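Support request from a user on the community tier.

User writes: "When I paste my structure tokens into the form, the page sometimes reloads and wipes my input. The last time it worked, I copied everything first. Here is what I submitted, just in case something in the input itself triggers the reload:"
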């Protein structure tokens, strides 16, 4: 699927079309037609007359649209199917806790269960910040030991799993090495997420998913592995450091489809296993979760340079986090300080010392996962170059409607992403007048707040907040902001305020 254009013609990689490639050596000086070398003038003229198209092997193939879109493009939704094997996780918990969660109204939104020694057991749910305690009695040492013994042995990263499931159990230890807490994370096999990036997967481009913990990065790449292996028939190898993608046990979970899984005995050796996967198993796609060290970033670049498609995840909310992270900055091309000459600095209108991208990024596409239904796609090179010179890059926002699952894609400025998300998810008014009235009301509210703040800074009066609060209360919930503004002006006009 072809959508918003991100790349200019100068960044395209050219390859000869199959019909007119007479020689393996192709002239790349012109993107409009192929000119093979060492052929007769008659054949060269024949090629010029045919004006054959060049096949572009770059990210604009998947992020390009020959015509401007008047409306956001929509993709056909897929049915979301969730399998959580939650009963097996609840069986690990102390007696009585599992039963309360089985019948809990928010069971489908359960993220994790926290068991800390001497504290009440707590359940955490997606989209909720309220504390949900499962009982009043604190967790005992015997209950912790029994729960830890019910799962597989903990590795060097203090993580364990339940055989045949995607759940993850993480341990908190004391200075003596005793387990004093458990975080029981729910692992779900979700199908239907991949339609957010169907077009990118078909284009066979490396992708880096960026997001905070718990936003769904591992769930997404798990389904991507299955889609690439079963539907696109790729040779996929997963480097599974903590068995979180393919589940615990020697037999991988069926959620990854036909993808192969390489387990990592020591988390600090993940970069070695990444290189081993390429050298020994001839994959077309390598999938890695939680890239977090400089050695792993270097391995990513090595894999990318060997022509293998790499799909990975990293912790961080925004692309700027990677640019400013000296450990992971190589994933997006790296950053170096360059000293310009006097003439070049004047022509650019900048200082002589500037920051520039060192090289091509290991991941041409970075996707920020703001939440499970809002993804921001970057052309990494263009976005990094723009951010380094304090410009606002263009990005592509992909939103899933929570009701019907429809995926909408639209282009916007990077600093307008949050506003676009709110606008797309806000309930639509009955007519345009309601929308205009709401916008005007918001502007007036903002102006009133600014005026009140100015009054606080200008006058030494302790009753400014009382005046504003009284006006709003008298105006009632149904009165407009303009009426409140006029009432505020009338009250302030009759009030004696002493300047500071």
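"...and here is what came back when it finally went through:"
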């Amino acid at each position: 699927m072809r959508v918003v254009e991100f790349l200019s013609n100068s960044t395209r990689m050219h390859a000869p079309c199959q019909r007119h490639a007479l020689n393996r050596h192709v002239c790349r000086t012109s993107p409009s037609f192929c000119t093979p070398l060492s052929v007769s003038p008659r054949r060269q003229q024949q090629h010029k007359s045919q004006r054959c198209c060049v096949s572009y092997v770059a990210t604009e193939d998947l992020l390009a649209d020959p015509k401007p879109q008047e409306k956001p493009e929509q993709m056909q939704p897929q049915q979301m199917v969730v399998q959580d094997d939650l009963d097996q996780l609840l069986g690990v918990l102390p007696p009585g806790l599992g039963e309360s969660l089985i019948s809990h109204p928010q069971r489908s939104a359960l993220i994790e269960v926290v068991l800390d020694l001497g504290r009440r057991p707590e359940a955490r749910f997606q989209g909720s910040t309220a504390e949900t305690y499962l009982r009043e009695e604190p967790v005992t040492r015997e209950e912790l030991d029994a729960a830890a013994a019910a799962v597989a042995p903990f590795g060097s990263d203090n993580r364990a799993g339940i055989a045949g499931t995607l759940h993850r159990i993480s341990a908190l230890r004391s200075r003596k090495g005793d387990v004093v807490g458990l975080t029981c994370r729910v692992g779900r096999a979700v199908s239907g997420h991949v339609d957010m990036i169907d077009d990118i997967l078909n284009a066979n481009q490396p992708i880096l998913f960026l997001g905070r913990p718990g936003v769904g990065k591992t769930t997404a790449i798990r389904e991507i592995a299955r889609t690439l292996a079963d539907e696109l028939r790729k040779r996929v190898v997963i480097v599974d450091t903590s068995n979180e993608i393919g589940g615990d046990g020697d037999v991988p979970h069926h959620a990854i489809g036909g993808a192969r899984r390489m387990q990592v005995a020591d988390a600090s050796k993940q970069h070695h296993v990444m290189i081993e996967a390429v050298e020994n198993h001839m994959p077309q796609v390598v999938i890695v979760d939680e890239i977090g060290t400089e050695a792993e970033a270097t391995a990513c670049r090595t894999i990318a340079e060997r022509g293998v498609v790499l799909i990975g995840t990293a912790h961080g909310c925004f692309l700027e986090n990677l640019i400013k992270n000296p450990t992971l900055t190589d994933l997006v091309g790296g950053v170096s300080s360059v000293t310009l000459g006097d003439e070049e600095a004047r022509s650019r209108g900048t200082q002589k010392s500037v920051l520039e991208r060192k090289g091509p990024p290991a991941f041409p596409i970075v996707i920020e996962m703001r939440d499970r239904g809002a993804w921001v796609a970057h052309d990494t090179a263009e976005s990094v170059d723009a951010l380094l010179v304090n410009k606002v890059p263009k990005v592509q926002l992909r939103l899933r409607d929570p009701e019907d699952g429809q995926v909408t894609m639209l282009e916007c400025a990077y600093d307008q992403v949050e506003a676009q998300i709110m606008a797309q998810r806000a309930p639509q008014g009955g007519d345009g007048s309601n929308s205009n009235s709401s916008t005007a009301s918001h502007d007036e509210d903002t102006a009133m707040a600014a005026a009140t703040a100015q009054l606080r800074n200008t006058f030494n009066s302790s009753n400014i907040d009382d005046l504003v609060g009284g006006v709003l209360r008298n105006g009632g919930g149904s009165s407009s902001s303009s009426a409140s503004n006029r009432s505020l002006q009338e009250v302030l006009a009759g009030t004696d305020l002493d300047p500071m």
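Agent notes: The reload is a front-end session timeout and is unrelated to the input. The mean pLDDT is 76. Residues 432-458 form the longest helix (27 residues). Escalated to web team.
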